[in-house]
Structures are given as C-alpha cells and as structure tokens.
Design brief:
This protein is 48% helix and 14% strand.
Length: 425
C-alpha cells in the first residue's frame, strides 16, 4: 500500500514519524514523507521518499522560531503561535499534499497539524494522526482542565462532566486556531477546523507506552496506544571513543536541552559554570541552543549531534527539558531524570517523571544554581535508579512501531467499509 506521511516541527516531531515510515517499508509498503528540507537526509537515510515542504529554513531559522515559541504562556497560545508561523506557507503545503494524496492509499500526519487530515477525507483517503502528548487524549476518567482540590466532582457525574468538558475544550481550541488559519483553510476549500482533540482523523495513534500511560477506558475505538516510535541517528565511533576517554569508565551527568532554544544562552551557561563543582565531570550536548562553556575545563565535555541511545549509556543522570522524545529516550535508557521544563507539554512530562518515581524537576529560573544539589540527590537515590531500570525493562517488551503498522493496516481494512460505499454511489 502507498502511505503518505507528513510531520512538522523539531527533531522530536520528525524522528518518530521517520520510525513509523521505516516500519511501514519493512512491512512491504511504499512510503513518502513530506516535510521540510532540514530533515531530508534523515528521511532518505531511512529509505523513505522525501517530499519537500516549505519553509526552506536552515538550522538558524528553526532555532529562531523555537526561541519565539518558548515565550508562549500556555498550550493554546503555543499552538496559535505555531499556526501563525505556518500560515504564510500553508497554501503551498496544502497544494503539495493535495497533489500527493491523489496517489496515496493512506495519509498520516502528526497531531500538531492533524487538521490536514481533512484533505484526505475529501479524497476518501483513510487518515490517521500520531501524537506523543497523552495528556491531550480525551478520557472519561479525567478532565482537560485542572480543578481546585477543594472542588470534588461527585463520582456519579464525573464521567458525563468530563465528556462535556472535553467537547468544550475541543470547540474552544478549534475556535482559537480558526482565528489564525480559518481564512486560509476556507480559501483552499478545506473548511474551518471542526475537531482537534476528539475526531481529528479515522485513527489516532498515541505513541507512548501503553503499560505506563494508557487509561483504563479510552474515548472510543479510534484511539490506540501503540507504544513509542523511536528513531536514532547512527552511532559515531569517533564520538564514542572521545566520550569513553573523558569518562574513564565512570557514569557522569548528561545535560541536553535538545531542540529547545532560548534567550541569553551565554549568561545562563556562565551561571551554570559558576555553580558547578570544580572536580565533577559532566557531558553537555550543545543542541539547538548551542550550549557550551567559555573557558576550558577538563571536567566538562561538550558534544554536538549524537544519538540519545549512544550518549545516555554514559549517564548517571540525564538533565533535560522534558521534551516528549527526550523523556522517552531517558525512560528507555534506565537512567534517572532531572527535568527543567521550558514551555508547552514539558511541564506535563516533568510531572509524569515525578509520578513514575524516576526523577525530579527544577524551576527554569533557578536551575543553574539548583542543579549541583539536585544531581547529588538523584545520583544517591537507589530507589529512583531501581525504578528507572524497571521501567526500561518494561519498555523493552513493547514494540511501538510494529503495533502502529498493525493499526494502520487494520485501518485500511476497515476503510473499505467506510469509503467504498461513498466511492461506489
């Protein structure tokens, strides 16, 4: 079958979909991946056909956009900012996807732009979205808004209350996003967004661990918790040797903020260097923010692009921003976390790390001063390490890419019942 995939955003948004595409190829399907030119080499190295989408920014352009996103006040503001950045390019994106959909048997989009599935539905092409943010998955057991602890909902009305609140949240989110891109969608004959949370596609693949995060009862059968989709860059033997020489057999803290960028990077890293113990080793991954130190220090090793799996083998604790992809990688590594959330869903993932008992979190405003003490606490915690290793063992039994392929193949079978009557009328 011919699958058309699309994803937009940073590495954490693109790599899981690359893994899905590779799994589909291994299952005998033909796959095209429409995304920006920044990830062309990654897409093609996985054996997928690359379809170029705008914008044609280089790394600095995406880093600048990420800096703006870190200023968002809440999840709704964040999505509006993302859609505002995308709106100048949306006409061309829609034109390209509409053309490619003509020769597609199925369409898969990441959840951020799940509204693109409306294109597929217009052409009677089965569609799915992938999402790694399980806090945004509708559930009868929880509300989309946090209620005050003093306000307890009686058990007998909890389910209908939560159902009603999710519908309100869906309407509110669509209303806000339509303020940004509604005119563009109408101009392109797609129509305004009608559902972002509850019914964005024929199937919603929730690509997190079902053992750790799946609720007791799903909203409906269209939601499927498949397990993680993880794609790693090839291991680098030269970087491996350099890290081994630095660590000398010792597990050391690893600091990485992934694709997150922010203002005043040098000032923040000066504060870090001022407070970090002189004789304590640490590895710093520079990432999109270009983290680094201004003075040579034999106890601090800085490295650029490297796969999480290769890097985290050397970690005693991973200090990170709480991005979905990085959190998943640390959970798989069996190493405790120190999470420093910056924006968006990162605060949610910090809470999940604490709930699972595998780490702690720090305030963004004070992390350079608080980090040394936090590292001492986590490195001495046998309980957190034991729990982290136990969770890694659990994740080893799951195969998210295989389950996602099964769900998509099942969707194709079901779609014959959905779309064939429409086509033959």
């Amino acid at each position: 079958m011919r699958f058309l995939l699309t994803s937009h955003g940073s590495t954490g948004d693109i790599f899981p979909v690359i893994r899905l595409g590779r799994a589909l190829v291994e299952a005998g399907h033909h796959v095209r991946f429409a995304t920006v030119n920044l990830f062309k080499k990654d897409v093609e190295s996985a054996g997928l056909k690359f379809i170029k989408l705008p914008p044609d920014w280089d790394q600095s352009g995406f880093s600048e956009a990420m800096r703006e996103l870190t200023k968002s006040g809440n999840s709704v503001d964040l999505l509006k900012m993302i859609y505002s950045e995308a709106n100048p390019f949306l006409d061309e994106i829609i034109e390209i996807l509409r053309r490619e959909l003509v020769t597609a048997d199925a369409f898969v989009s990441n959840y951020i732009f799940g509204n693109l599935c409306r294109l597929a539905r217009q052409l009677e092409v089965p569609c799915a979205v992938t999402t790694f943010a399980h806090n945004a998955i509708p559930s009868y057991s929880k509300s989309p808004i946090s209620l005050p602890r003093a306000l307890k909902i009686p058990h007998f009305i909890k389910k209908p209350f939560n159902k009603y609140m999710w519908k309100i949240a869906d309407f509110y989110l669509c209303w806000n996003l339509n303020q940004v891109i509604g005119e563009t969608l109408i101009k392109n004959e797609i129509g305004e967004m009608e559902s972002y949370l509850i019914n964005p596609a024929d199937r919603i693949l929730v690509t997190v661990s079902p053992a750790l995060f799946k609720p007791k009862k799903l909203w409906n059968e269209n939601f499927s918790f498949t397990g993680y989709l993880r794609w790693q860059a090839p291991e680098d033997s030269e970087k491996q040797s350099a890290i081994e020489q630095f660590c000398q057999g010792e597990k050391v803290p690893v600091l990485t903020f992934g694709s997150v960028t922010f203002e005043n990077t040098r000032k923040i890293m000066r504060r870090f260097l001022k407070n970090w113990p002189n004789n304590k080793k640490i590895i710093i991954q520079s990432g999109w923010a270009q983290l680094g130190i201004e003075r040579s220090n034999s106890y601090i090793f800085t490295i650029d692009k490297i796969s999480h799996d290769q890097l985290f083998k050397f970690a005693s604790v991973v200090i990170h921003h709480g991005g979905a992809g990085t959190t998943a990688s640390v959970l798989h590594s069996g190493v405790p976390h120190i999470v420093i959330p910056h924006f968006g869903d990162q605060k949610f993932f910090a809470r999940e790390v604490r709930r699972l008992g595998v780490g702690i979190s720090l305030r963004l405003s004070r992390w350079p001063e608080e980090l040394p003490r936090a590292v001492r606490i986590v490195e001495r915690s046998k309980k957190r390490l034991k729990k982290a290793r136990s969770i890694a063992d659990t994740l080893e039994t799951e195969n998210g890419s295989q389950e996602a392929v099964k769900e998509l193949e099942r969707l194709m079978i079901e779609s014959k019942e959905i779309y064939l009557p429409i086509i033959t009328k």
